[in-house]
Amino acid sequence: MWLKFFFLWCVMANVYCWDIFKFSPLPRFDHEWWGPVHLKYQNDTRIRPFQMHFDEGMIQDLRYRLKNHRPFTPPLEGVGFEYGFNTAYLDGWVDYWSDHYPFQKQEDYLNQFPQYKTNIQGLDIHFLWVRPEVPHHIEVVPLLLLHGWPGSVREFYETIPLLTKVSEYRDFAVEVIAPSLPGFGFSDAAIRPGLGATEMGVVLRNLMHRLGFKKFYVQGGDWGGYIGLSIVTLYPKEVLGYHSNLPTSISPSALAIWALGSIYPPLVVDPYLAKRMYPLLNIIYGLTRETGYFHLQATKPDTLGVAMSDSPSGMLAYILQLFSSATRRRFYNRADGGLDEIYTRDELIDNLMIYWITNTFTTSSRIYAETANLRNIKMGVFAIPTPVPTWTIHASDEILYQSPTLLKIKFPNLLNSTILNTGGHFLALELPRVFADDVLHAIEAFRRYRKKNKLGY
Description:
With 457 residues, the protein is an alpha/beta fold. It is 44% helix and 12% strand.
């Protein structure tokens, strides 16, 4: 019954969506203004140095809130994380943040890389910009590195030194530009509706132009993957190659082929990976079980934001529960959520600090409402194939896996799909060396591909 329903839904979606965008030109909003109108004609285009700062007043207020929360409701007997963050373990996390998190040490850690701000389309965009020192015969190539939600640029701190390290075995070195997405962390949020993931792609492409890069590589996961998808679709002549740890091909034809593969999976996926895509009902159930937050943030992000902006304990529970479920599926049944097994507490609280001190839980959550809507569907950017050479990597516990058969519908020049037998959704944070090595291999492949096809690199 469920399989028949899903198949019928895919067929209907195929007909409906194809009718929407089969004749639609690519949208153009290269200069849409998202900031205060009065600043439009006196825009400051300077690139200004920036550092994060943990203000003492903010720290004292945060500690007060952490220490004076109401008693947490006890969990049900014998449960893990099935109902969300198990409150039997929440006091330990709250106490650590309040009394043991080394604020000054972590502020220094977060300021280890050069950071800047510049105004793009009315928004001050914050970004890390890490440039290697290289011999004269080594070419330096730019990589736009994009995070998602509920992550931040903090995800990349361990992998950036590996990405930017100069090697005698490569004829290039990488400089990393890692922005905070608009509305996230230290980047401004839009003051009017309409800034979804596709529009963010335009803002960040314009950031690269501001920095002097007319052509560049793109890497993205989570929302960064969707934003990267938008950039390579809107500006295929500007992107030298696209790497993603959460690639998606969600055109109607891809969904229909995915559904048809339920009858005979080898038509769609290598047999040893079939369990990552089938049985389809298991995939649908797993996504439904873990994506309640998506529906809430796609419909009422501001209401949710009132609670999260007021209670650091609540924000911790909400965000870290998502880190748990997206890191390992088996952590669903563990009372501690498995968080200490994969990450350090300082790593996770660094990320929380970026949301807390900037008060951007609400504005970052709006990316769901601004993207998961008919306006975005009708643009059809997610379904239009792109010629940009693409390389993907797939962690074993990533929230979604699609085989090359499906990915090539969106990315016909898919050069490689790296399959991991470990790892989860926050791959750069969890496995920084694996992540960096794969990105560097991808850039090497992109350069060979472009040279072979005389595309320039």
